[in-house]
Amino acid sequence: MTVHTHILGFPRIGAARELKVALEGHWRGEVSEAALEATGKQLRARHWALQKDAGLDYVTVGDFAFYDQMANHIQLLGCEPARFNFDAPQSPQSPLSRYFKMARGEDTHAAHAGCTHGHANGHHDHDASNYALEMTKWFDTNYHYLVPEFSPLTRFSLDSSRLFDEVAEAQALGHQVKAALIGPLTFLWLGKEKTPGFNRLSLLEQLLPVYGALLDRLKQQGVAWVQVDEPILGLDLPNAWRSAFESTYWQLNQVGINILLATYFSPLEENLSLTCRLPVAGLHVDGIRAQHELVSVTDWLPAHKVLSIGIVDGRNIWRTDLDAALAVLQPLAARRNGHLWLAPSCSLLHAPFSLAGETGLDGEIKTWLAFATEKLTELSLLKAALENHPDTTSLAISRLAIAGRRASRRVHRPAVAQRLQTLAPSADRRASSFPQRQAMQRARLQLPNFPTTTIGSFPQTTAIRAARARYKRGELATAEYETQMRAEIAHAVGRQEALGLDVLVHGEAERNDMVEYFGEQLDGFIFTRLGWVQSYGSRCVKPPIIYGDVQRPAAMTVAWTVHAQSLTQKPMKGMLTGPITILQWSFVRDDQPRAKTAQQIALAIRDEVADLETAGIGIIQIDEPALREGLPLRRSQWDAYLDWATRAFRIAAAVVKDTTQIHTHMCYAQFNDILPQIAAMDADVITIETSRSDMELLTGFGQFQYPNEIGPGVYDIHSPRIPATLDMVRLLQKASAVIPPANLWVNPDCGLKTRNWAETEAALKNMVDAARQMRVA
Ligand code: GLN
Ligand code: ZN
Questions:
Q1: Distance in Å, CA 706 to ligand 2 centroid
Q2: What DSSP string runs through 736-766?
Q3: Which helix (H) or strand (E) holds 686?
Q4: Average pLDDT, the chain
Q5: Which option is the CATH number for 2-105+129-407: 1.25.40.10, 3.40.50.300, 3.30.70.2740, 3.20.20.210?
Q6: In 365-521, where do the E strands start and end?
Q7: How confident is the model at residue 107, as a pLDDT?
Q8: Rounded mean pLDDT, 619-640
Q9: Ligand 2 midpoint to CA 576 (Å)
Q10: Which of 81, 619, 669, 745 could form a Cys-Cys staple with 661, CB 3.0–4.6 A?
Q11: In this predicted structure, what is the pLDDT of residue 92?
Q12: How many helices and strands, by DSSP H and E, does the chain display?
């Protein structure tokens, strides 16, 4: 047996988020470029040492980035967009300062204002030419990359020595290096054409010689293997892109360096035989998401090629069931004459750093987990077992943990299973159809035309944040904290009344994060201390872990909402996060389908909805900003997902009477291809982010004849700019042209928690004026 172990990439942010600290210090002007570089070098050295100490056969170089790996490639390949004017002689800039300009724009204050959850969604002020590169999600992860820009004028050249320097750095430390690169086709695919009618694939011919030179340089450095990532092989590719693979890799293979072509996140399906035939030295496949393809890949891949199997889940935090993994690997190893490489399924960028810092974590649950560092050890254990010198002690410990998790009463709650089983098939249906409900709700709510509302959160002031932090640390007694939050709610309600809004909200002062707030109160969730995962640049998120059956032990929002309602005659909108968003922004169980976990969360939210209604709340909003991002990478799997996802939403919502109005909210996304399913959620009102597309998004809703009420956001909450009344009137007129005006609501794009009160009040005042003008028009 010759089994080799490696990883596709490691989290670069550092055990204690050292990179974040250094980066933000640098951006504030407190950390010099040299000091930042030194931090980077230290982190790399530390992460390589972890790989080596865990017994991996290679350390991976090229996964480090100060902001983003795609941005590194833009510099490596010399294709910084011309609009940044980096060539202008008057301002010679260091490569790193150019890099941060691309990542953050010239006006770094406005750069990449995250949406209120802290997820990036790339808003820029397009008036300037040096706004930051757009950011978008890396496949179906919560990591956001910077989007390369392509035009007929794009030229490539080997322009940065960073990668080669890092290779030399690792070699100097005595490591056996495998370099990692984003492949040419994935790089082009993930970019964006900046010239209408231009096809970025036409740049391939120019790009390949530069990749050739790049590989050649690595070869000169004595690098034995280069991992070239082509995850787009797991997507539905147009034919032109598919057929470009063969000639591309034929050309790159001429360099004579061993290429390990890496695929991940998705099965290869119709690209499987093509991928196996490509002229490269090895292939990595995702053994978690594409486990059902492992046997075919093993058969299709010629015997002289290396097969790397991603057997450890790089997207989740669970300890690997080593026995189950060995049962998968052993027959494959036999078919490959004992030659196999083992790796995590994808880069460990998507996993938290290490369990070592989790001092406060529940001891039993902790034994069920493996973060990036622990996953390295798992690879070595698998290798040893395959090579017939198993570490029996470690295997036994692992086995015990897996058995413990499987049998735990904390994971399996019979009452939850029972409730799901006995759930009536009609539980996800409202009693009456929308037109009937609409009439009843109108009679009850007595709202004007073009009713005004907001999306939920009001400014999270320093006072609010400080109070919450002190309360969490135990420095503020519960009673005092509650008094303060009630005062904040009263304040928000008073201001909304003064502004003349029609449907009020309590303002979410008590919430730090729209998922965490609910997860902390639900059974089946656990929170880590340092389980950070990079979202973009220096930003990280700390997703909750759903480890067991979910249920709601007690009401979560009722007291706050009832307090808020008691302060006003206007309807108070209850505010909840939906099951799919909670699922999507958490680490989820791998021992049952996502659909089932979603249903359990849906039932917990349903209980909250019922309690709010009983407490007299007549309007309840269930936010689902993550519904679209949960779409599978393959279109063939969309229907199945949308089916259970929309059903989960309806289970949460449909418990109410016809007279209770259900709202949902979604942030900016391409909705047009899933409109039937959005309609199938059957929310009485949907509010969506539309202002940045100048209402273009609404055209789809109009053409589809979206049946229920809609609140298209009339102003962008990501910008401090106060929108003028006239601008909002114009947007509402535009909306009225495609949506029946009687179905239109007036609201901002998203929650207001990142804004201050002065901006918020000025903007909402104009918004209310705009609605009034529409009513008389
Ligand atoms: N209700 C949430 C808020 O207003 C919605 C946030 C979101 O859509 N991401 O903050
Ligand atoms: Zn939103």
A1: 20
A2: HHHS-GGGB-BB-SS--TTS-HHHHHHHHHH
A3: strand 685-688
A4: 95
A5: 3.20.20.210
A6: none
A7: 55
A8: 97
A9: 13
A10: 619
A11: 66
A12: 27, 21
Which among 612, 604, 611 has a CA at the least distance from the CA of 572?
612
- Whether the pLDDT of residue 469 is over 90: the answer is yes
Tell whether pTM > 0.90. Answer: yes
Exactly one of 47, 73, 175, 718 is catalytic; which is it? 718
Residues carrying CATH 3.20.20.210, the chain: 2-105+129-407, 436-776
- Candidates 142, 453, 457, 535: which one to mutate for ligand 1, based on the most atoms within 8 Å of Cβ? 457
DSSP state, residue 195: S
pLDDT at 122: 44
Residue 141 Cα to ligand 2 middle (Å)? 18
* Ligand 1 atom index nearest CA of 577: 1
The mean per-residue pLDDT over the stretch 355-369 comes to 96
Tokens of 99: 């890099």
Task: Give the atom of ligand 1 at the shortest distance from the alpha carbon of 457.
Answer: 4
**Which pLDDT score is estimated for 688?**
96
Residue nearest to atom 10 of ligand 1 (CA): 751
Q: Which CATH architecture has domain 436-776?
A: Alpha-Beta Barrel (3.20)
Quick: pLDDT tens for 545-596.
Answer: 999 999 999 999 999 999 999 999 999 999 999 999 999 999 999 999 999 9
Look at ligand 1, atom 1, and give the residue with the nearest C-alpha.
Answer: 456
- How many C-alpha atoms does 567 have within 13 Å on its Cβ side? 24
| Ligand 1 pocket: which of 508, 619, 622, 687 to mutate (most atoms within 8 A of CB) | 508
Q: Ligand 1, closest atom to CA 456?
A: 4
Residue 391's pLDDT is 98
Give the whole-angstrom CA distance, residue 603 versus residue 561. 20
Which residues surround ligand 1 with Cβ inside 6 Å? 115-117, 455-457, 508, 514, 575, 623, 625, 665, 667, 750-751, 753
CA atoms lying within 13 Å on the CB side of residue 106: 11
Indicate the DSSP class of residue 115. Answer: P
Q: What is the 750 CA–ligand 1 centroid distance (Å)? A: 6
The CA R_g of the chain, rounded to the nearest whole Å, is: 27
Residue of minimum CA distance from atom 5 in ligand 1: 751
DSSP code string of 40-102: HHHHHHHHHHHHHHTT-S-EEES---SS-HHHHHHHHTT---GGG-TT-TT----HHHHHHHH
Contacts of 243 (CB under 8 A, 6+ apart): none
Give the closest ligand to the alpha carbon of residue 511: 1
Q: Following DSSP, what letter does each residue of 337-357 receive, concatenated?
A: TTEEEEEESS-GGGS-S-GGG
Helix (H) or strand (E) holding 774: helix 757-776
- β-bridge mates for residue 225, sequence order: 178, 258
Q: Which ligand is the nearest neighbour of the Cα of 669?
A: 2
Q: Ligand 1 mean position to 624 CA, how many Å? A: 9
> What's the rounded mean pLDDT across residues 79-87?
92
Cα 724 from Cα 765, distance rounded (Å): 10
How far apart CA 748 and CA 691 sit, in angstroms, is 8
pLDDT tens, position by position, 92-147 = 689 999 999 999 987 544 444 444 444 444 444 445 577 899 999 999 999 999 99
**Which residues, 6+ apart, have CB-to-CB distance to 691 below 8 Å?**
712, 713, 714, 715, 716, 723, 731, 749
Relative to the alpha carbon of 455, which ligand is closest? 1
Active site residue 718: yes
Residue corresponding to tokens 């449909």: 654
Residue of the nearest CA to atom 4 in ligand 1? Answer: 751
Residue 665 CA, closest ligand 1 atom number = 8
Please tell me the number of the ligand nearest to residue 751's CA: 1
Atom of ligand 1 nearest to the CA of 621: 1
Length of the chain equals 777
Residues 376-421: tens digit of each pLDDT: 999 999 999 999 999 999 999 999 999 999 999 999 999 999 999 9
